[in-house]
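#random but structural
TW: two for the price of one
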Amino acid sequence: MAARIVVPESVEKPYEYYRDNVAKSLELFDELVALGKPRVLFSSSASLYATKDDFEVTEEDALAPGSPYARTKRMMEQVLEDMAVATGLRAIILRYFNPIGSDPDLESGIYAKEPSHVLGQLVMAARGIKDSFTITGTEHPTRDGTGIRDYIHVWDLARAHVRAVEKFDDVLAAADAPSTVINIGTGDGVTVRELIDSFQRVFGQEVPVTEAPPRPGDAVGAYANVDKSARLLDWHTQLSLDEAIASALAWGEKRQEILGYE
């Protein structure tokens, strides 16, 4: 979870992304094996998947990482898979879809002053910190032309990690492999325009919106087939898109008190 994660920044600074996400991870994994602490729960990304006509992807579907960030994640998946065959290392690789929202108790949340992800940008526009929210890409082959994503409440994502830790050895035994990949998402696809509509409904008023071309490295998107997470982790999401939006808005009001800045 210490990786660099901003797609456009990875296009601008590929060296830093390969250094921190790949080279340093290699040393970490090697040290874990040497220390006899070989169980790794790895944060990967749905940005690895190739675009599919129906946008629903399983763990076995084709990959086409479209940015240096995504390629670093794929490289580390391959490293873990290879090391798990050759050494005592064991790995569960969670391919996150699009985490949004905050801790429901509002004890933690987004820390970046200007978060790059879509919901953080919407909250900033809603609170007047930004003039408007920008939709990047309006001519994608989706139902309304905007990118499609699987937005998962971050608290559900946290619960998936707890379940993976609790069931680590059982998961790999059930997978009959020294490593395995699991999608972590809701199983539903939501376009950016649909997210904006949901946000405005929860917020209670309209948010100014502008349109722009896709950013470097942006993907059309996908949503998760979640059969494997249900089968191996006995896990499914519990919180709704509206609840994730409400928690993000609540954190936006409280973050200055917690972090000391807007």
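TW: number two ↓
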Amino acid sequence: MESLTVPAKIDYLDEAADFIEANLQALSCPDKIQLQIRLAVEEVFVNIASYAYEGSAHPETGKAVLTFTHLENPSRVQISFADEGVPFNPLDKEDSDTSEEAIMARAGGMGILLVKNMMDDVEYVYRDGQNILTVTKNLTGGEDA
């Protein structure tokens, strides 16, 4: 298990993504799965940076903690994102309308649906004053998914 703590600011997106990418490369993760995981990581991190500390007394001091874990049998990775921001479960939101008309009528709102569709499992808990969103992706058998 590897962890990275960074300020919850968009400026740290590359550092967060590079941390995950380095761990995936160490596992010789297939390129397509790496891309899917990177997109999910970017979406979740941007949401934390944009909304988690919005309205808090000191939004400039908010942080995000990413934890990368490789699990075996079957081989998969679990990435947890923790923040101490406003409690918010993105999985409670109804899935976005993906009809062409709905997509053209608005910008945004598709991120969590993207994450749910690309990852094999997505879980949320609020524990000890922290939002914790965990995504899991199988590393075998899903290259064509």
